[in-house]
Amino acid sequence: EHMVRESHQDRELGTRPREIPSFHSHFTTLTITREPRSKHRAKDGAVGTSQGCATTTVTTMLFEPDRDGQTPQVVVLVGAPGMGKTTMVRKVMVEWGEGTLHTQFDFVFCIDCKAIDLPMEASVADLVSQCCPGLQVPAGKILDDQKKILFIFDGFEALEFSLVQPKAELSSDPREVKPLELTLMSLLKKTLLPKASLLITVRPVALGSLRQCLKGEYYMEILGFSAARRKEYFHRYFENPNKADMAFRFAKGNEILYSLCVIPAMSWTTCTVLEQELCGKKNLLECSKTTTGMIMFYLSQLLKHRDRDNPQVLQQFLLHLCSLAAEGIWKHKVLFEEKEIKDCGLDQPGLLPFFLNERIPREGEDHESVYAFTHLHLQEFFAAMFYVLEDDGEMDSSLGKLEKDVNKLLESYNKSRKDLNVTVRFLFGLVSQKSIEYMDKTIGCRISPRAREELLEWLQGRHRGLSHPGQALKVSEMDTFHFLFEMNEKSFTESALGHFTDLDLQETKLTLYDQMALSFCIQHWAGLGCITLKGCSFQWQDPEAEPDASVPCSGISGAGGRPGALVVWRREELPCPIHLLCRALRRRDSALQVLRLQWCQLSESCCADLAALLAEHPGLARLELADSSLGDSGVHLLCEGLRTPGCRLRILR
């Protein structure tokens, strides 16, 4: 009863003020890949979904036997922020509590790593009691039958202690009181309750350190919403089917917004924004094509009914809010105590609920309420805003004094703090001329353009440092293209990339959003002479394409609960994987001479676009397609391009 009650509370995105929807009415199935331990080859902290990996829509397969009949005891659920890891945890708990799934467990205990509130020393028995206050059964008795217990660690990356602990220090007695990190590590390393099951959710950036703690684990990666599921989500969110259709058509018509809606959090944000816009209106305003623009639009909707008679109140509130957000991002902090809210001057009932969710203490807890931003991405947005929002002086907060030092933020990101990526991306988006004007006119916030020069110098300097003396200056970091795409300014992009001649990416999984960012930058990169994309994969079909569950396949439970159905993709409907790249290069003023696409697993479907590029490009002299499966018909298409009078190619490999 306790777990069902807890899991029905939506802590990630909050609920609309007018209703508290049931969990099942709003839950939309996510696309998840399951990867057995033997096939897991994490690279740079990310799980790669190889072609041999079964892609299916599951929630029932978390602890079911694999093809070899092995039942996993440890399942790691990997996903980027906002992909739905916590929602999946809540669904597991709801299904278990209702007796519909996971019935092999008598007890499920969920540890929220982002809000862990335990003494410095504790036993597993203490942990169990803390997870479920008022437990009638003695904790010791519960732990006797290990196979019937599931421990869930939600948000593993938030644990801030060392994962390297001496084996001799680990515990094997569930009643033994040890330092908290040793007790948790003993559970992970299976010296404690070795027959109990574990479900761990983690962001890709923390996967490398987690793997050192585990043995025999199974990995599942959340890929987000398929195209069909996105449509389903919109219809579940809106009560009125006409509004749902209108909102979905709007989102699908915006290429970038629709592709970002693969992330459940962005689908939620989009629906929330469009729901506000549809109130009393028959048409939808045109949305910006960047994440920053979408959130600014969202912010304007939240604030348009606020008191405009005294804009200074809102300006001061946002200054304090941004300070709190930035302090939190620097310190990996997402929960804020009531005292911090008051000390920051944020205890304003007319504004606070629009930005922060309050978490009421559970019965028996003696601490006060805690607060969190309605979503991590919103906290990151306001953290970026802290650096560019105009104010009369340095801000003081209850968490300490934080300087508005843009260079410190950028250098910290460059050296070690890769978790600052989204904040830096929003920083670029906020200082675009369009954003500055929009924030001033629509929200009444003054954004300073002073950071633009610092951002430009940083981008130019970071890649100069990566290029070797005597070699061509090259850009080899994908995030650079994300940053420029977020700003979406032709002149700034031209200045940032003007000193570089080469683009070099190695073994990168290029999502549709990555390709859009690349395409935008290539179009405004006058001096680009050489593109090298070795071992890169161009992701269009998963999860963007419509699934076709009509092909039977034994052993896999597919979409819609149909036994023996495997989710596959209609090949004839897929666009050419390198379509955006070729389209961006077909410019009469392009300086490109070398295009290397080795080990990119290109197929016949790419040849028509390549042939068109060969026929139209004014200077492409070298094309490398090593280790591709073009087929005879694909090579025939290439030859058509080679025969055209406009082809300038000299070397084909």
The strands making up the biggest β-sheet line up spatially as 2-1-9-3-8-6-4
In the predicted model, the low-confidence regions spanning at least 5 consecutive residues are 10-20, 36-59, 394-399, 541-574
CATH class category label of the largest domain: Alpha Beta
Average pLDDT, all residues:
77
What is the architecture of the largest domain at the second tier of CATH?
Answer: 3-Layer(aba) Sandwich
Helicity, in percent? 25-40%
Q: In this structure, how is the largest beta sheet organized?
A: 7 strands, mixed
Number of spatially distinct domains:
4
Q: Number of helix segments? A: 25
Distance between the first and last residues' Cα: 65 Å
Q: Which fold does the CATH topology of the largest domain refer to?
A: Rossmann fold
Strand residue percentage? 5-15%
Radius of gyration: 26 Å
Structural class: alpha/beta
What does this structure look like?
The chain is α/β, with parallel strands linked by helices and 653 residues long. The protein has 4 domains: 1-12 and 20-36 and 55-224, 3-Layer(aba) Sandwich (Rossmann fold), CATH 3.40.50.300; 227-284, no CATH class; 311-461, no CATH class; 467-541 and 575-652, Leucine-rich repeat, LRR (right-handed beta-alpha superhelix). The chain is built from 25 helices and 26 strands. The protein has a 7-stranded mixed beta sheet, with helices on both faces. Strands 15-16-18-24-25-26 form a 6-stranded parallel beta sheet. It has a 3-stranded antiparallel beta sheet with strand order 10-12-11. Strand 25, helix 25 (631-643) and strand 26 (651-652) form a beta-alpha-beta unit. It is globular and about 85 Å long. The termini are far apart.
